[in-house]
Write a structure and sequence with these properties.
The protein is mainly beta. The chain has 3 domains: 28-43 and 213-282, conserved putative lor/sdh protein from methanococcus maripaludis s2 fold (Beta Barrel); 46-55 and 134-210, Elongation Factor Tu (Ef-tu), domain 3 (Beta Barrel); 59-132, OB fold (Dihydrolipoamide Acetyltransferase, E2P), CATH 2.40.50.100. The protein is built from 1 helix and 21 strands. The chain has one helix at 2-28, and strands at residues 30-36, 39-55, 58-61, 67-72, 79-80, 85-90, 101-104, 109-114, 121-122, 129-132, 136-144, 156-161, 166-174, 184-192, 202-219, 230-235, 238-243, 245-249, 253-258, 266-269, 279-282. A hairpin with a 4-residue loop joins strand 12 (156-161) and strand 13 (166-174).
């Protein structure tokens, strides 16, 4: 029995010694890191919306009287001047003869869609074609009603095109009425066509929905944790874990409400492998 007790005691001491060496090894390991300091800056929170591209203007052309569609005088993609003839319709009344009736474009632009087939009956409520200008375009999307009071006409935005190009846009029009079923507002952002962009394409709009000026903030990569947020602060050559309270954020920075000040040296890169109390060494990038 005595021998068994001695054996168990020996194993415990060995394990304790191993854990102690492991703990010491963690403390003695030097992790290369880069650092940053919290700074006060303006933060803008942006939300990305998918938008349809429309011409400016972008209109549908309707006949002035009902009749049967006869033929088009233009092709899709063709430029047309104001009052230029887009198509002809004809009236069919027994015992009467009518000349083909022209349907004219109310604006100059490009024919983006031809919508009817020969012999189809059309009315003043049934469009014949679509005509748009491409020099300036609208990015049109639906905005959730909860953001209605957070945006304003004239707001500058960024538009990301399908091919990856980025252009600046201006919030030009906001609907005054919510869609009854979706509870969204229709919004239009105007931007200059950089070339090769046409109505019917899609894009993404980065819309600012919240701003805070002169707030203490830090790079997003410095923040760790899912529920409880924390950072590692460099104290001498030791990394110390520090819980923080965050606020508004954008793609690069996060507001720090509590836990840091402008004098703190915060570990930015190398922080993901750190444990509280580890030694660190600052490396230049």
């Amino acid at each position: 029995m005595k021998n068994k007790i001695l054996l168990v005691t020996g194993i415990f001491l060995i394990l304790a010694s191993c854990k102690g060496r492991e703990k010491n090894a963690i403390k003695e390991r030097i992790i290369p890191v880069t650092v940053t300091t919290p700074q006060k800056r303006e933060l803008v929170k942006e939300i990305v919306f998918t938008a349809d591209i429309e011409g400016n203007p972008d209109i549908y052309v309707y006949p002035e009287i009902p009749g049967y569609f006869l033929k088009y005088a233009v092709r899709e993609g063709e430029r047309i001047e104001k009052d230029g003839i887009i198509a002809y319709i004809e009236r069919k009344i027994p015992g009467m003869e009518y000349k083909p009736i022209p349907v004219k474009s109310p604006i100059s632009g490009y024919v983006s869609e031809l919508l009817r087939e020969k012999g189809e009956f059309v009315t003043q409520a049934k469009p014949i074609a679509r005509v748009a200008r491409y020099g300036e375009l609208f990015a049109v999307f639906s905005l959730p009603g909860k953001y209605a009071g957070k945006i304003r006409r004239g707001e500058r935005t960024e538009i990301i095109l399908e091919d990856g190009r980025r252009v600046k846009g201006t919030l030009r029009w906001i609907s005054k009425t919510l869609e009854p079923f979706t509870k969204t507002l229709k919004v239009k952002v105007l931007f200059k066509n950089p070339g090769g962009i046409y109505p019917g394409m899609v894009c993404e709009v980065k819309l600012p929905v919240k701003r805070k000026g002169n707030v203490l903030s830090i790079e997003k990569d410095a923040i760790l944790g899912d529920i409880v947020k924390y950072v590692f602060v460099k104290k001498g050559n030791i990394a110390k874990k520090k819980v923080v309270k965050t606020g508004i954020e954008n793609e690069e920075y996060v507001e720090i409400k509590e836990g840091l000040n402008e004098k703190d040296t915060v570990i930015l890169k190398g922080n993901k492998v750190l444990k509280d109390g580890m030694k660190v060494e600052v490396k230049e990038e």
